Amino acid sequence: MAIITVGDKNQFNDIVKKNPKVAVDFNASWCGSCKTMKPVFEKLSNDHSDIKFLSVDIDEASDLAQEYGITSMPTFKFIDKGKVVDEVVGAKRHDLENTMSSFTS
């Protein structure tokens, strides 16, 4: 399944409202660790078609980054029925994979 690049808060909120489970990659184009984690996030999106995967560039959607308390990149947030239930901060492949496993069960 494709990762949706979100450009603004309205689009983000609309997707979160319509999908019970959402995984979000908060990143920046200049962030090396974000580039390292991108293929991992893409693989997870292919493995879990029941979850909506979003990518948010914090420079383009700074209001979302502020609302979700993003202080370092990449930060992955897991949203279940509109509420953040888990997160992984940093380029931690195993943490991301493990968190995804518990999010899908």
Automatic annotation (TrEMBL):
Keyword Transport annotated: no
Keyword Disulfide bond part of the UniProt annotation: yes
Species of the source: Coemansia erecta
Record-annotated site: Contributes to redox potential value: 32-33
Cysteines paired by S-S bonds: 31-34
Active site annotation, chain numbering: 31 (nucleophile), 34 (nucleophile)
Record site feature (Deprotonates C-terminal active site Cys), residues: 25
Keyword vocabulary terms for this entry: Disulfide bond, Redox-active center
UniProt record similarity statement: Belongs to the thioredoxin family.
Coiled coil: none
Name of the protein in its database record: Thioredoxin
Gene3D superfamilies per the UniProt record, alphabetical: Glutaredoxin
